[in-house]
Design goal:
18% strand, 18 strands, 51% helix, 568 residues, alpha+beta
């Protein structure tokens, strides 16, 4: 039998296991746009349960499951996190009023969780975390018919989850083309594995330090691995910088090379420090901190041709890093104070608004349009259900309209509705910032909440959204190969343009999106773009598409996206 204490420890072990593997799960994401990352969202969701259970002393499996499910719901981030929280909410419902559970009770509860997860998704897609959970349940049910031991049943659930995960590429062509399994399904497997380790073997998985994972293999993997070592070596300048220039290069070995790389290492140690030299049959990879990069490169040429060279000024990097750290620290402190200031208030007004956005300009814009609170978040920074709940409760309105402004936040926002009983919460399913802005502008002061829901939802379809960002990972779409760092443009979520310059990318994007019927165009520029660049982009757009549409510039200050284009 599984009691409350063992279930609590199993959940903590599962949370630790996915936390240890979140970088590996994040690396499975196939779309190059920077996002919230599945591993991060799922680990943060279950870590909320782990934190809540740290002080839980109840031996009742019912109370432990309920406390965990409640914490996961409030801490749910991104679609994958919400689905995970609903799976465990269903399990908690199945464990209700039980001090301990057997195999049949475990399967019954798991079934409730799978059903809740499926119902939360409007159009469930097979080949995802949903499929992994469903097929795991099927195997658990079959096992319980032969043996009521919950450990044996849980073992069958885990094994089937891994089998289902291996099949996901055959269910989703995009996974098969990328040669990866579903990230959400992988995350669920990591959690179940961690739980099984505790339940079956009595071994609590400990959370391990995180390392970024590369999807490369062979020689490139060796180069990437040594490069990580080089970066770790370079980190020594955080306290004392003895030499100015971090110099890295790859040498293609000369066919008649008689020298040993150790000779190169010995020489470099005479002109610098933090020397690392790695080799295979064809190349030598070198890292050194020195005041004389030219001497290091000159010596390298005696070993063969230079394939790549990178020289960086570490003192300048350190200065910029220190400035960035201080800015981020100040921003984090300000955000903390702001969050602490969010206190529940009585719903005295008829209507209020909560939006999700990031960037000083966009936050100000939404507030100017009437939003009481703007929750910090968006792409790559998905707020939790609790973050949105607190903003709703701090809005003094009988009806609170919530604008998620990101497709990966809508599901988390919807979980707020059952948590609130003293005011109505209306989720307007805005997937982009332009959709959120046009929805706000469509609100009619004298209309009912029901009609305003219709007006605001209908307005979403009247605006098209363009986005210019950078590729967070290597990928391939059709015949287009995307490399990490490439500038990419999306037309209503579809990747259409690859460029080297964000201004050129947004001009091309605007030409594709603006038609003869277009009346209004808003160009929202973010971090990394100057006002002069934004003005130049507008001038080029006008030259390309003519003067029929009114074009405005907004300093949004948003991260991730160089430009957001709103076309009506």
């Amino acid at each position: 039998m599984i009691n409350g204490s063992s279930y609590k420890n199993a959940l903590i072990s599962g949370a630790n296991n996915i936390t240890s593997h979140k970088a590996e799960i994040n690396a499975l994401n196939i779309f190059p746009v920077p996002d919230g990352d599945t591993g991060t969202n799922m680990s943060m969701t279950i870590e909320a349960a782990s934190a809540a259970l740290a002080e839980e002393e109840s031996v009742s499996v019912s109370k432990v499951a309920s406390a965990a499910a409640s914490a996961m719901l409030k801490g749910a981030r991104g679609n994958s996190g919400v689905i995970l929280s609903l799976l465990f909410r269903g399990i908690a419902n199945g464990f209700k009023d039980k001090d301990e559970i057997d195999g049949k009770a475990l399967v019954s509860a798991f079934h409730i969780g799978v059903e809740m997860a499926y119902k939360a998704v409007m159009n469930p897609t097979e080949g995802t975390i949903l499929t992994v959970a469903r097929m795991a349940f099927d195997a658990g049910r079959a096992a319980a018919e032969h043996d009521d031991d919950p450990i044996i049943v849980f073992g069958a659930i885990c094994a089937a989850a891994h089998d289902a995960l291996d099949k996901t590429p055959g269910m989703l062509p995009v996974l098969k083309k990328a040669g990866v399994v579903d990230a959400g399904g992988k995350g669920l497997c990591m959690i179940l594995d961690g739980m099984l380790s505790l339940l079956r073997d009595g071994v609590m998985i400990e959370a391990a330090p995180q390392e970024e994972v590369s999807d490369t293999s062979g020689l490139q993997a060796q180069i990437d691995a040594s490069g990580e070592f080089f970066r770790n070596a370079a980190a020594e300048f955080d306290s004392v910088i003895n030499f100015t220039y971090c110099t890295e290069f790859i040498i293609g070995k000369a066919e008649d090379l008689e020298k040993s790389p150790e000779e190169l290492r010995s020489y470099l140690e005479t002109i610098g420090d933090c020397v690392v030299v790695a080799e295979d049959e064809d190349i030598i990879k070198v890292h050194v901190h020195t005041e004389n990069p030219g001497k290091a490169i000159e010596e390298a040429l005696t070993f063969g041709q230079l394939l790549t060279v990178k020289v960086e000024n570490m003192k300048e990097q350190h200065r910029k890093a220190a400035e960035k750290y201080e800015k981020e620290k100040a921003a984090a402190e300000a955000a903390k104070k702001k969050k602490e200031a969010l206190k529940p208030v009585e719903p005295t007004e008829e209507a209020g608004f909560v939006a999700v956005a990031s960037g000083e300009g966009l936050v100000g814009l939404f507030k100017d349009l009437g939003c009481t609170h703007v929750v910090s978040g968006g792409q790559s920074m998905n707020p939790s259900t609790e973050d949105i709940y607190e903003a709703v409760m701090a809005t003094p309105a009988k009806t609170v309209f919530v604008l998620p402004n990101n497709k990966n936040i809508i599901l988390a926002a919807q979980q707020v509705i059952p948590l609130v009983d003293d005011r109505e919460v209306v989720i307007i399913p805005t997937k982009t910032i332009p959709q959120g802005l046009v929805a706000m502008l469509s609100y009619a002061q004298d209309s009912t909440p029901e009609l305003n829901r219709e007006y605001m939802t209908a307005a979403i379809s009247t605006v098209s959204t363009g986005q210019v960002t950078y590729a967070a990972r290597n990928s391939e779409f059709g015949l287009t190969k995307i490399k990490e760092g490439d500038i990419i443009a999306l037309n209503n979520g579809k990747l259409t343009i690859k460029e080297k310059d964000p201004v050129k990318a947004v001009v091309k994007l605007a030409r594709d999106m603006i038609t003869r019927d277009t009346s209004y165009v808003s160009l929202i520029y973010g971090n990394g773009i100057t006002e002069a660049q934004a003005s130049a982009a507008v001038d080029s757009i006008r030259a390309k598409v003519g003067g029929n549409a009114e074009i405005s510039i907004i300093d949004g200050g948003q991260p991730i996206y160089y430009f957001i284009l709103s076309v009506e």
